[in-house]
């Protein structure tokens, strides 16, 4: 049933910029002069590298000396732990459902990898961060449960690889409407200790593409992104609330110039691609810095994979820290001032931080429980199978039968993998199609706005911004369409493989005499399939829930777009029988005369739960038809619809409608209209504020592609 939910609170944060200068290396000490002066913990001076200036040049202020101020400036040789101290609070927020990004920016050999990864005696920011996360999880004395997982990828030559996969193929970026930019197929490993992440980090680093250049003997040729996700589940009276914090730790590749590094051939091409990403990053920093001073500017995120991955960290929902690393050597003057120039612009960048809060609806919990039970059953059968196989293998006379049985086993396992692959492909396709639907809507709005600008308002700056945005959307649509066609082809291949496997299994079982084994095997397969189907259903439910949340999001934009203030919106909604949660107005200011009423079971149904207590068992198509609605059709139809809603983030429910689905006697309400009523079980009359800047935070899908549930182990 339609309802309006108050948006989660959002705060603007400024990108924190720190400067870290490394000490002179042994060889530099012999040939270079130290030109960095850290005057205090916020200011740094880069001295003129040219000592031959005469007095006249100096007094005419023709010196190349530069001064900069930052949030923090560290003295050469300071440890990573000192740098970390100032960002530790940002990292701690991840355990509370906030996103954070930390990246080192600087030229080759300036100390980026040293800062992010570090050494045994001076652990880097990556290592210190996940230690903090596990310390906080360990110290937490609430009844919340935590799940920490991590992924590690590299962008090399504009191709994404999984560093946690032995020989990873090329991975693609996907725009997920709920979670933003995602890397399709990236492995995400659940971890239970800081040591485990360290182990994964070391394995990943050993797979990173590094080369020896003249600027650095082990120069990283790729940009590496370590992502740690912390899911915090809080049990409440009305189901579980999930906080989902994400920490992205980025070690960029060096931005050396070919002339300095004597590169040629492949290395030169790598350099060009590394620079393409870094150039794109610099351009984004530039545009974002400008945007903050001058308003709307096109930010070229799409120019590289790196900037698309870092988009959230640069302007979205993330508290971000940038460590600009510099070398103190005089021959690096140009790189140092260049790095500091971008760092200076980055100070202007603003991000918008809000908690990622979601709920795990009861029906999803039920599904999860069923899947868990099935998993237990599957592993029991697996054990039985293993025992049976063992018994068979000790009888040499049954060798031939044994071979057939293991063949069956292989087929059965392959069937499982095939099903899992289909689930993943189908879900990816769903998400892509949804994203493109939204893209097309935005395109339409943009076309209207552009037409308006061309005919009436004629503001060239706005027109330009709109046209650039239109191009971005068109690119998105094209990319997503291409990816969608690829997924469809993969699904076809997957299905033909499935029927092939089925035929092979039929053939193998008809020839085999071992009935007990086959019985167990078929039971095992059957359970596996049921399990897989439940997962498909969960994935589809996720999608439906997501669609509805998106519709609500659009509705909020429409409401704010009308220019009405909160009070007017609320009055209008009350008249139309709509629920608005988190309303800041006092109850007395509304035309509400009916005292609070409660449904007979003492608990209101979640407004977006599927299926509703009275509805038929779920079928994906019926769900889309019955429950899918667009913001506009909702606006047109809402006067006919009784409204019931739930404040998802607070354990309090509101009902303010003409009629709840239940009347006082526990029967479903069927009358057209009744008196408006309020109800907040447990917390009557308490209201929560909302504001136009606030944004809906969506719950993560319980069956998202990031966490494929493996049931064939
Ligand atoms: P980048 O990743 O920016 O290319 P590295 O982190 O690989 O640069 O550092 C280049 C060299 O400088 C390495 O040999 C590294 O050990 C050394 N180095 C960097 N920072 C420090 C530091 N704070 N203390 C000591 N050595 C450092
Ligand atoms: Mg490096």
What does this structure look like?
This protein is an alpha+beta fold. The chain has 19 helices and 22 strands. The strands form six sheets. Strands 2, 6, 7, 8, 9, 12, 15, 16, 17 and 19 form a ten-stranded mixed sheet that branches. Strand 20 and strand 21 (652-657) form a beta hairpin. Helix 13 packs antiparallel against helix 16 and helix 14 (399-457) runs antiparallel to helix 15 (460-511). It is globular. The protein starts with 9 loop residues before the first strand and ends in a 34-residue tail after the last strand. Magnesium ion binds at residues 112-113, 220, 254. Residues 22-23, 25, 106, 108-114, 216, 219-220, 254, 325 line the site of adenosine-5'-diphosphate.
Question: Helices, strands, pairings?
Answer:
Elements: E1 10-14, E2 16-21, H1 26-31, E3 36-40, E4 43-46, H2 55-59, E5 66-69, E6 72-74, H3 80-85, H4 88-92, E7 99-105, H5 112-116, H6 125-139, E8 145-156, E9 159-162, E10 172-176, E11 180-184, E12 189-191, H7 194-207, E13 210-211, E14 219-220, E15 223-236, E16 239-251, H8 258-261, H9 265-294, H10 305-309, H11 311-315, E17 319-326, H12 333-346, E18 350-354, E19 357-360, H13 362-393, H14 399-457, H15 460-511, H16 515-561, H17 566-576, H18 620-627, H19 631-637, E20 645-647, E21 652-657, E22 677-679
The chain binds adenosine-5'-diphosphate and magnesium ion.
Residues 22-23, 25, 106, 108-114, 216, 219-220, 254, 325 line the site of adenosine-5'-diphosphate.
């Amino acid at each position: 049933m339609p309802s309006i939910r108050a948006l989660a609170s959002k705060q603007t944060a400024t990108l924190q910029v720190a400067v870290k200068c490394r000490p002179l290396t042994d060889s530099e000490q012999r040939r270079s002069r130290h030109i960095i002066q850290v005057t205090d913990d916020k200011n740094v001076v880069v001295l003129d590298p040219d000592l031959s200036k005469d007095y006249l040049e100096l007094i005419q202020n023709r010196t190349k000396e530069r001064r900069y101020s930052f949030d923090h400036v560290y003295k050469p040789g300071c440890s990573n732990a000192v740098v970390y101290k100032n960002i530790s609070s940002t990292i701690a927020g991840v355990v509370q459902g906030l996103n954070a990004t930390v990246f080192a920016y600087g030229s080759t050999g300036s100390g980026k990898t040293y800062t992010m990864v570090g050494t045994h005696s001076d652990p880097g920011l990556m290592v210190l961060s996940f230690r903090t996360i596990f310390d906080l999880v360990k110290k937490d004395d609430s009844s919340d449960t935590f799940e920490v997982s991590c992924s590690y990828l590299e962008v090399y030559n504009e191709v994404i690889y999984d560093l946690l996969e032995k020989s990873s193929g090329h991975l693609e970026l996907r725009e997920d409407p709920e979670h933003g930019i995602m890397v399709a197929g990236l492995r995400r490993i659940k971890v239970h200790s800081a040591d485990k992440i360290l182990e994964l980090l070391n394995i990943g680093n050993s797979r990173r593409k590094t080369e020896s250049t003249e600027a650095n003997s082990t120069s990283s040729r790729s940009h590496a992104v370590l992502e740690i996700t912390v899911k915090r589940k809080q049990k409440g009276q009305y189901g579980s609330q999930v906080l989902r914090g994400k920490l992205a730790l980025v070690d960029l590749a060096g931005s050396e110039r070919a002339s300095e590094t004597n590169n040629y051939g492949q290395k030169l091409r790598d350099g060009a691609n590394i620079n393409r990403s870094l150039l794109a990053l610099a351009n984004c920093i530039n545009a974002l810095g400008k945007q903050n001073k001058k308003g709307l500017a096109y930010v070229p995120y799409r120019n590289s994979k790196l900037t698309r991955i870092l988009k959230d960290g640069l302007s979205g929902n993330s508290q971000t820290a940038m460590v600009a690393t510099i070398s103190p050597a005089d021959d690096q003057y140009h790189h140092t001032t260049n790095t500091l120039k971008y760092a200076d612009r980055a100070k202007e960048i603003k991000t918008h931080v809000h908690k990622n809060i979601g709920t795990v609806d009861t029906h999803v919990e039920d599904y999860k429980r069923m899947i868990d039970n099935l998993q237990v059953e599957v592993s029991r059968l697996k054990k039985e199978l293993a025992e049976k196989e063992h018994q068979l293998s000790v009888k040499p006379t049954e060798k031939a039968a044994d071979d057939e049985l293991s063949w069956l086993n292989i087929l059965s396992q392959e069937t499982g993998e095939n099903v899992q692959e289909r689930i993943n492909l189908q879900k990816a396709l769903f998400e892509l199609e949804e994203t493109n639907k939204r893209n097309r809507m935005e395109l339409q709005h943009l076309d209207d706005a552009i037409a308006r600008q061309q005919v009436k308002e004629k503001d060239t700056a706005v027109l330009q911004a709109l046209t650039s945005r239109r191009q971005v959307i068109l690119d998105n649509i094209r990319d997503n369409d291409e990816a969608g066609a690829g997924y469809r082809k993969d699904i076809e291949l997957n299905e033909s493989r499935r029927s092939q496997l089925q035929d092979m299994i039929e053939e193998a079982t008809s020839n085999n005499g071992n009935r007990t084994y086959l019985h167990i095997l078929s039971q095992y397969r059957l359970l596996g399939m049921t399990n897989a189907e439940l997962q498909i259903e969960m994935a589809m439910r996720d999608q439906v829930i997501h669609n509805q949340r998106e519709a609500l999001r659009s509705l909020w934009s429409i409401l704010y777009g009308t220019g009405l203030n909160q009070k007017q919106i609320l009055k209008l909604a009350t008249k139309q029988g709509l629920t608005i949660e988190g309303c800041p107005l006092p109850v007395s200011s509304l035309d509400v005369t009916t005292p609070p009423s409660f449904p007979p079971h003492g608990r209101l149904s979640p407004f977006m739960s599927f299926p509703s207590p009275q509805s038929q068992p779920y079928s994906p198509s019926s769900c889309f038809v019955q429950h899918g609605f667009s913001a506009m059709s909702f606006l047109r139809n809402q006067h006919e619809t009784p409204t019931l809603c739930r404040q998802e983030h607070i354990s309090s429910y509101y009902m303010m409608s003409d009629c709840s689905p239940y009347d006082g006697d526990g029967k479903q309400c069927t009358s057209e209209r009744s008196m408006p009523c309020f109800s907040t079980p447990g917390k009557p009359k308490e209201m929560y504020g909302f504001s136009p800047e606030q944004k809906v935070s969506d719950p993560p899908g319980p069956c998202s592609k990031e966490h494929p549930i493996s049931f064939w182990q």
